[in-house]
Known about the structure:
Blueprint: E1 2-7, H1 17-25, E2 28-35, H2 44-60, E3 66-69, H3 72-83, E4 87-91, H4 96-111, E5 115-119, H5 141-151, H6 188-193, H7 198-210, H8 215-218, H9 231-235, H10 241-254, H11 259-281, H12 303-311, H13 317-329, H14 334-347, H15 352-362, H16 368-379, H17 394-401, H18 406-411, H19 431-436, H20 452-464
Parallel strand pairs: 1-2, 1-4, 2-3, 4-5
Helix pairs in contact: 10-11, 11-16, 13-14, 14-16, 15-16
This protein binds flavin-adenine dinucleotide.
Flavin-adenine dinucleotide (FAD) binds next to helix 9, helix 11, helix 14 and helix 16.
Amino acid sequence: MISIIWFRKDLRLFDNPALFHAIAESDCVIPIFINDTSACPMGGASKWWLHHSLSALSQSLGRKLVLRQGNSLEILQQACQETEASAVYWNRRYEPESIKTDKTIKSTLEENGIQVKTYNSHLLNEPWTIKNNQGDHFKVFTPYWKHCIARSKISACLTIPTLEKLQIISGCSLESMNLLPKEPDWSAGLRESWMPGEAGAQDRLSDFMNNLSGYKENRNRPDIHATSRLSPHLTWGEISVRQIWHTMHRTLETRQTLESDALNFLSEIGWREFSYHLLFHIPTLPTQPLRQQFADFPWQDAPEAFKVWSKGLTGYPIVDAGMRELWHTGYMHNRVRMIVASFLIKDLLIPWQDGQAWFWDTLVDADLANNSASWQWVAGCGADASPYFRIFNPVLQGETFDPKGAYVRRWIPELANLPDNFIHQPWTAPDAKLSSAGIHLGYTYPYPMINHDMARKRALELYKTL
Ligand SMILES: Cc1cc2nc3c(=O)[nH]c(=O)nc-3n(C[C@H](O)[C@H](O)[C@H](O)COP(=O)(O)OP(=O)(O)OC[C@H]3O[C@@H](n4cnc5c(N)ncnc54)[C@H](O)[C@@H]3O)c2cc1C
């Protein structure tokens, strides 16, 4: 039997069920990746990542990865005709548009006599397999995750199959897919920060396992490298979440002192699962507030303020550091994501969907489920959300989670010489301190674009009107 394995967000060999079964059940397998130009557009940082991840995958497959561009269904039909393939294998996706596309492709291929075999490679538990006592989906994280942990028997990882059966057919070049930024090439910071691909993902996991101790205590600290930074690798399926799960449990068997760190880390993986659960059951998650009353919130149309926020020039150092980290590396620490999102939504009254779109364009881990659920969570309009009246104070957040200002100094070098007690509120520093630190407020670094206390009161008043 000749088969096609259609790679999507599963750009790895280890524990890749579609690849494993295609090779086990076929005489000859053609590995394809399709850059579907009719699908939801990717952000710039995602495209950069995809380019490098495909390059790494192609190398691992002995340069046998076929790249094509266009409509997925047409390309798969063409490829089946050219190769006389009688089966197509893929790993399942969960975004509403992808589900629709995959259903159409599956039924059309099957009508043409081609077998379609699909698998779970992306999640510990697929969204429809987890139900509450009423047989409905979960709306609150804690009972969801407890339920998952109680039931879970996570299947073992699949090995890397031998690749002798792989065959190549004609395709386009990676360069012709135009995924890399040109004129200007803004990707230098991304190149410095990441190694896309399966080998990079495996390195990240082993580094993180060596540094797991202290995760629980320090995961909220952007000035300390305490989190795994596995998110882009997970987003692109360069590492299997099952592998992470089993690695963590094996570690627990031998090193019980790490229990609270490991369980805390797994609960973050649980938030990822929960976001997928929500997106599957509530397909409007990326666009509509889950709490309907928020549809009438009097958001402001403030394109200039949005620009100031996106460039990291708000005058609040922790917000600006986060936005600059994002622009430079395609990543932002989770605590800082919450702070900058709260500032955009509650201090500037700009719709959460605008922030979500900016993150979609600039994050290397841009993920429809996680991004939508997290923005709704901060806005207070999501399932199990942070209450609307919880408005992050950017100064206190900075002082609590970046106490010496190391994170701010790293991303805002113009503030580097300011003493610790002013680093999160430079406008309170005496003139002498500012000038000896080489800072001229309003010139070298902005004054706050808005008074936080006033903005907080304004947001709470508006919230009362809902
Ligand atoms: C406004 C906002 C937008 C976000 N957008 C995205 C996004 O587009 N893509 C994305 O992957 N994450 C997103 N997150 C969640 C979180 O910030 C990142 O997953 C995390 O910062 C990744 O860093 P890490 O891999 O070092 O995390 P770790 O702490 O090492 O966590 C391990 C893994 O768990 C998952 N995870 C951790 N925290 C969360 C969370 N709060 N929600 C869901 N999954 C989580 C990620 O897959 C992460 O890689 C967003 C959070 C906020 C507040």
